[in-house]
Structure formats: structure tokens, C-alpha cells
């Protein structure tokens, strides 16, 4: 009964737009909003990135990833890294910082372990989405990368709340479904996620794949299934249609084989 009341409280707060964000998330969110401003000055952006050491390190790592460094010339400065990856990818790095901050203050060791596993899953999904979007599902790769980064924001939010509510996530059946959808939808609003990305993320749980795969949601479905690290919050089973599409799919295997280095380097950059 106590746990049901806790879930009801979180869902009610979400429905009212009263999401509880740690202070660190608010700071990262302000940075993301600044990067979304088309009138932002280049020097102002650079100063903002330099003021956030995690974002600066992750941006340099991404700039040196194979997918952005075809010539093999390493970059050692934040200014050069920003110029190489561009503002769209920098925005995605800021979003990654926002999402990851939800788990940064978790005290419970088991929940911290789940948050770290969820972030590893997220990094792999984002990198795979970038590859799959560009080569299989007719989806803008940059948008797919961004969607992959924020697609588990609701899970991170629940983990952060569970730190103060022991046992909250013991049984996924308690919150999977309508409560998860309400929290994800309101979180997308709070984070100012563009509608096409938000819709794909909110509709992801319970979605089915009908080949041929097209669009952002199908991109995320395939990437989540192929990610080498599973989400610790995922229910048992897999979306309908995935196994039939992925098993013995020579074209998909060829795409992944050709892009394995890019996906691996990109996910490693996100995990910095």
C-alpha cells in the first residue's frame, strides 16, 4: 500500500508538471537551453562548455571518435572539438549531461549500479541509433543520436526518486504502462524536447515493429534490442516483430559490421 501511494504521488506530481529535479540537473538544463538558442554567440557557447568539465571532456572525446575523425588527427582543445562536432552534437552532449545527472546523487548502492547500467545501455542505444537511422530507417542520424540519449530519461528520473522511496522499483509491473507514460510525457515537456522526438520516446514502451522499419521509434526499438548492455528497468520479453526482423537479417548484419567501429567509438565517447 505504501509503495502504491508513492507511485501515485510521483504520477500526480508529473501530471501537474511538478517534477522534482536535482539542482545539478537544473544547471545542466540551463546550459542545454542556451545551446538551443540560435542567436547564441560562439564565444558564449565556448565559455559555457568550458565551465562544465564533464561536457568539455565528452565533447573532446566525441570529436576524436572515429565517426568524426576520419583523418585520424587528434583534437586536444575544446574550441577545436566544438568546431568539429558542431552545435547539434554539442546539444546532444548537453542532453546527455542532463540525463546522467539524475543518477549522480543516488546514495543507495543497488540503485547506483542500476543507474550506471542504464547509462551504459543508453550510450550504446544512442550510438546504434545514429548508425541505424542513417543506413536503415530513413531517419536523420543526428536526431536519432539525440533521441537515443534521452529515451531513458524517465527511467533515470524514477531511479532518482527511488533513492528516497525504498522498494519503489522492485516490481516493474507497478509502474510500467500508464504511470511510465505520464512521467515520460511530462519529462519531455520539462526538458523542452521537440515534439517528434518526444512522441517517439513516449510511445516506445509496448511498441511493435512492422517491417520494413521506418522512422525514429523503429530506430530506437532496433537499437535497444541490439545494445550489448540491457536496460535494468526493461520488462521481460521484447517488442513484437523484432525477433523476426533481426534474426538472420543479412542486410542488417552488413550494416552493423560496416559501422561497428563508428558505433563503438561513439558509445565510448558518451561514456566518458
From TrEMBL:
Q: Which PROSITE patterns match?
A: HDOD (PS51833)
Q: Which SUPFAM superfamilies match?
A: HD-domain/PDEase-like (SSF109604)
Ranges for domain HDOD: 21-207
Superkingdom field: Bacteria
Q: Which InterPro entries match?
A: HDOD (IPR013976), RNase_Y/CdgJ (IPR052340)
Entry's Pfam families? HDOD (PF08668)
Q: What is this protein called?
A: HDOD domain protein
Query: Which species?
Result: Duganella phyllosphaerae
